[in-house]
Amino acid sequence: MDLNETNLQTLTEFLRKTLDPDPLVRRPAEKFLELVEGNQNYPVLLLTLLEKSQDNVIRVCAAVTFKNYIKRNWRIVEDEPNKISDVDRTTVKANIVNLMLRSPEQIQKQLSDGISIIGREDFPQKWPDLLTEMVTRFQSGDFHIINGVLRTAHSLFKRYRHEFKSNELWLEIKLVLDTFAAPLTELFKATIELCQTHAKDINALKVLFSSLTLITKLFYSLNFQDLPEFFEDNMETWMSNFHNLLTLDNKLLQTDDEEEAGLLEMLKSQICDNAALYAQKYDEEFQPYLPRFVTAIWNLLVSTGQEVKYDLLVSNAIQFLASVCERPHYKNLFEDQNTLTSICEKVIVPNMEFRSADEEAFEDNSEEYIRRDLEGSDIDTRRRAACDLVRGLCKFFEGPVTAIFSGYVNSMLAEYAKNPSMNWKHKDAAIYLVTSLASKAQTQKHGITQANELVNLTEFFVNHIITDLKSPNVNEFPVLKADAIKYVMIFRSQLPKDQLLQAVPLLMAHLQAESAVEHTYAAHALERLFTMRGPNNSTLITPLEMAPFTQDLLISLFKALSLPGSAENEYIMKAIMRSFSLLQEAIVPYIPTLIGELTQKLLIVSKNPSKPHFNHYLFESLCLSIRITCKANPATVGSFEESLFPVFTEILQNDVQEFVPYVFQVMSLLLEIHSSSIPSSYMALFPHLLQPALWERAGNIPPLVRLLQAYLEKGSSTIASSAADKIPGLLGVFQKLIASKANDHQGFYLLNSIIEHMPPESIMQFRKQIFILLFQRLQSSKTTKYIKSFLVFINLYCVKYGAIALQEIFDSIQPKMFGMVLEKVIIPEVQKVSGPVDKKICAVGITKILTECPAMMDTEYTKLWTPLLQALIGFFELPEDDSIPDDEHFIDIEDTPGYQTAFSQLAFAGKKEHDPIGETMGNPKILLAQSLHKLSTACPGRVPSMLTSSLNTEALQFLQGYLQAASVQLV
Amino acid sequence: MPTKNVFDQRISKFKNKGKDPLKLRDKRISDCVELRKAHKIESFLKRRNITLSSLPDEDALTADTASDDEVTPLTIEEIVQHVNSGCNATKTRGCQAARKLLSRERNPPVKKIIDCGLLSFFVAFLSMDDEPTLQFEAAWALTNIASGTSWHTKQVVEHGAVPAFIALLGSPLLHISEQAIWALGNIAGDGPVYRDALIDCHVIPALLARITPDTPVGYLRNLTWTLSNLCRNKNPFPPLSAVQQLLPPLVQLLHLSDKDVLSDACWAISYLTDGSNDRIDVVVKTGIVPQLVTLMGHADVSVVTPALRSVGNIVSGSDVQTQVAIDAGVLTALPTLMRHSKSIVQKEAAWALSNIAAGPCKQIQQLITCGLLPPLVELLRNGDFKTQREAVWAVTNFTSGATVEQVVQLVQTGALEAIINLLQVKDSKTILVILDSINNIFMAAEKLGEIEKLCLLVEELGGLDRFEMLQNHENETVYQAAHNLIEKFFTDDKLEVLTTEATEDEFRFQAADVKKAFEF
Fold it and tell me: Where would I find the ARM repeats (chain B) (predicted)?
């Protein structure tokens, strides 16, 4: 592609087409550009267009295309072809800085991004003159150009703020400092002087202040990793200017906008960050300046208004004070009673006030409000910063701070009492203040767990909280109601139980409030109260205590789901789930209605699943309904199937991916409840469950395996008789799962169920094949997880089919195979098997091999007899070997599930651990003793001699213990 | 945890590398790029205008020359003329004038004096034993030149001053041999090349010959400083044979009482121990460790600092070497230093502790028994940033090698709370190291079956909030480490049926067993 008019023309045409709204025009043009971008001169053509095109749209479009092209292609990846020719690379680097600086702002930004992408790859080694080229522009005096340089520098250097220290990084920083630090300092001083000269020229000031902000940001990046010698030597210049800027106010720079932060706010906010950086990391050097900054920032806070545009500045400034006040050697800056009082009065209290922006969110954007207020996504808010400052001050001054605030709380409550409808915000602030003062430690599970002992929480609850909850009009002062509910919720572990019980019906009443925040909080508070633990590990609030409210509670909760905006409210659904779980059989009478409502909901949400939490709790609630009802009367399982299967069928037919794994879990739960045979409705579905497409989605695998296990447990004979042709398909699933390191254990679950439940003759012909597959996998890639599952399986096989059958099938695959598996797998690895059931299976299986397998006594395998016994005794007595080989620790699961395939396990669909051996075998150690005794009577003299010749003394002692316990003797 | 790679840099310096990859022992990074001002605490590489202890009074020096204070100083041209003259007295006058110019605090005209060819004269004067004043003035002038930049030192060496100075060491006039010591110290301080060149010219026996019971203490100070410069610098280290020669006199000097002698002797030891375990071994074998530990308690910080540095180097060695320091009482000496008023001392003490904490659990137990945990937690809470960073390493090393019971003790002393608080520091690596410690603590809790209890504690201490915030961290590794902690320990609460919370991340595959098998 030569650099000529025709090519420029063609490129212009295609760029224009990429802006076309019609995809039929746009797509081919985009395709074309991708096709030609590998040609030499392509980037140069784009640069030419963005500079010289007559059409402004094309210029911007070329700039964006150029940036994206750089982003995709500049990096040279090892073993991949270089996508941009060296000539083009050189040309681009030679021209881009100049071009960027000459371009209008829109294009400048794109090119500046381009420079930082290239810089990330090439700077400094392959672009040594970049910095000098940039620095010389500082002298241009043209602040449009200077800001372009500063912006580019910022995007190049900001990674110093988060990258790990390394020699390479520090060498780069050193180089940057050598060329950049001094000119930047000069520029900083010159800019400040210019601000004074142009103090009355708003346009000039705007440009100058954006330069100052960028310079201040650069200072942060360059000083982040360590304190550079240059900045230590020039600290006076920087810090005294920063200090002046913090105290500066210029009417011209004040903006009318209430929301968007202005230049002055952004600059001061960054200065607060810089001061915080120095205070934290370079304390020793910064100490002389710190008191001045504390005073300046403190004055700044006192004089800054309530508008949203100041939020970031205020919260940064408060965070600075919070971090300084808890350091012991600055304690003295705060300890004066007057200072403390005015911090409380002028900084903390005003920033805890409920503002109109909060009010708007409360009314119109309840989800956002809840996220901030309840879930703690309020990191940058003023309230959060004020809370942190309270906590910081309490470290050294808990008593005085509490006393000061108590006074404020009382006066604010008095204000409220004078005229509630005018002054309700005072009470809100009072509650917030009490909360932040009282809470010293908090968890989701228990709410506040440690409280400030100087605050009487119960008294406040009785005098100020419960009164609001009791007010008959739930829709009056919704913010205060929400505050009161939240108070109960977070202080639940601190309040006496009788107060909580008193609150329960009041909270239920608030489920009907119009305010979404209010009824959501009510649901959430109830849910939290129901999870509290009392003595004996049972719930604090008992089903008996809830008995009078059961019906009301259920009705109120479901009614709340019909309030506007709460149709898929996850807090309410979770409260429903928790209520079911708490009330247990008390809900049985209401089940017909409840299941109808839940099914109806399910039908609606399955059209367009959008709230994953809501949906999850919905399925949990369904599971609870089923378990609770069928526990009392298993026969009712049929009626659940009747109401649920139509919806389930629809979900499966429409392949609603989010719900399919849930459906399988609920079906497993239902099928497991059936006492004997499998209903035909399930059998009709069986072939479909084996379809490969279903197994492609990782999220389906665990619930599908479980469902198939339920089929095998309940319907093995039906499968053998009427679906025998599906057995290969079933084993095919096993084969697929076993091939994957991530899913092999699932394959073993399935295989174990097949061995345990299927009639032997139905799988006879497949047995050898199964073992061959297992051995192949063992040989090609064995992992600890695989070996553990493999050991459990072969021992289960041995228990089920006998030790002789196991030995014979091994040796039929390859001579002496049995000995090899014993020697290389069972003996060295059995110690790794974990879990009581798995351990029992292995113990019984190995006992059988030792005592019921003639080949172990009469062939060359005999030499393995004592080592195997030794391993078994070790398995009984030694701690589990949970080591994992080094190379396995960082193993990558080759088929990590993709995004769409989440599997969310339903807790209430949980399955009891299955024990295929059961109690019949008794204590495995006794079983071993008895079996050995039997063996020794069959061939007298041999067993004791084998034991004494090669079993180690310790093991022998243990074994004698078993024999004694079983009251047998070896002969 | 994917944090592994990030530790590589530090891991490569472990004292026990290859023995146990989990034990993080930290050798000082000395060849690393620095952004800060050069270490202020270390003794100077080169010294100008020190006071000679043995300097005769000014009258003695100037006896055979006119009292020069009254005459106007000579110009460089005049100096050249003077040293070229046939008269020794004139030569002496010229040389003295040059020395005075070179002793000027501001901009001594070093370059000019070199350029006009005076150096070869000065070097020649060094051998004029019958003209002691001239000899002395020349030595002084050359010393001042050698104390300048590397280039300056190079000029002095290339004019053949080294053998002449070494010969001067034997001068019967104390002030002349002291001047030679000073000059040689400056040359040795220039770097490993000249240091080894001096060693090859047998400077060591010549220096050691001057140590006698009668050597005045001031003289001894300068001598010790020069010895320390002969021990200084790595890449390469001084030859082992030289070290073997230097150690016995250093051990002797370390038992004297003068604080300057002690300080420089300690610095010498600190240079010799700042290397591989074989280097440390040579020092440990002299049996000096108990004396170094004693000196850690010296009243003067200029002795404490290098003594602590030396012992810190030693405990970064093998377990056996560390044990020697422990047996010598380092653990009883450390608490005072961790509470020292100078933060640099606190930092070095924390660094030493971090290396002891990387040892086997037997040594960790001694650390606990000697009461090192409370001061460690104090440093985590109140130390300056650099000290906190070392203290955090101590916690990580501790938690990766300690027994479960030892980890419990650490947590009970308040370390967990302190490190959680530090998750707000503005340093990615420190954050990562803390997350790794917390992960280690969780693994201990897992063995005790107390994961749930620990989860609650971490949440109460504000840890969970911090982990969540760190999931927004720009550094991918930090983000991942925080995310892993949340995933592993905070999303699968069986008792409260928190498995239900697992959907919080919609796109997550939750095969519990996979997770178990792939973790330690």
Answer: 160-188, 245-287, 371-399
Q: Which residue has the tokens 């006896």?
A: B63
Is B511 touching A (CB cutoff 8 A)?
Answer: yes
**For the stretch A61-85, what's the b/e string if a residue is b when 16 or more beta carbons lie within 10 angstroms of its beta carbon?**
bbbbbbbbbbeebbeeeeeeeeebe
Which residues does chain B have within 8 Å of residue A884's beta carbon, measured at their own beta carbons? Answer: 517-520
- Which helix (H) or strand (E) is A587 found in, with range? none
Angstrom distance (rounded) from CA A489 to CA A571: 13
Angstroms from A381 CA to nearest CA on chain B: 14
Length of chain B: 520
Whether the CB of B388 is below 8 Å from some CB of chain A: the reply is: no
Nearest residue on chain A to B389, judged by CA atoms?
A281
Positive or negative torsion for Cα B180, B182, B183, B185: positive
Extract long-range pairs of A361-369: CB within 8 Å, 24+ residues apart. A362/A478, A362/A479, A362/A482, A362/A515, A362/A517, A363/A515, A366/A515, A366/A516, A366/A517, A366/A520, A366/A565, A369/A517
Burial B98-115 (b: 16+ CB within 10 A, else e): bbbbbeeeeebebeebbe
Q: Do B510 and A903 touch (CB under 8 A)?
A: yes
Q: Which residues of A touch B341 (CB under 8 A)?
A: none
Burial of A288 by CB count in 10 Å (0-12 exposed, 13-18 middle, 19+ buried)?
Answer: exposed
- Mark yes or no for CB contact A170/B511 under 8 Å: no
Chain-chain contact of A904 with B502 (C-beta, under 8 angstroms) = yes
- Chain B CB contacts of A228 below 8 Å: 35-36
Beta carbons of A742 and B511 less than 8 Å apart = yes
Cβ contact, residue pair B459, A444, below 8 Å: yes
Work out the minimum CA distance from A252 to partner chain B, whole angstroms: 35
Question: Contact A782/A744 with Cβ under 8 angstroms?
Answer: no
For the whole model, what pTM was predicted? Answer: 0.74
Rounded to 5 degrees, what angle do the CA atoms A665, A668, A672 make?
145
By three-state DSSP, how is residue A443 classified? strand
Count A/B contacts: CB-CB distance under 8 Å. 152
pLDDT of chain B along its 520 residues, tens only? 333 343 444 433 434 333 333 344 454 444 467 888 765 445 566 776 666 777 665 544 544 444 444 457 788 899 999 999 889 999 999 999 999 888 887 888 999 999 999 999 999 999 999 999 999 999 999 999 998 888 999 999 999 999 999 999 999 999 999 999 999 999 999 999 999 999 999 999 999 999 999 999 999 999 999 999 999 988 899 999 999 999 999 999 999 999 999 999 999 999 999 989 999 999 999 999 999 999 999 999 999 999 999 999 999 999 999 999 999 999 999 999 999 999 999 999 999 999 999 999 999 999 999 999 999 999 999 999 999 999 999 999 999 989 999 999 999 999 999 999 999 999 999 999 999 999 999 999 988 888 888 998 999 998 998 998 898 899 999 999 999 999 888 874 332 222 222 222 221 212 222 222 212 1
CB A482 within 8 A of CB A518: yes
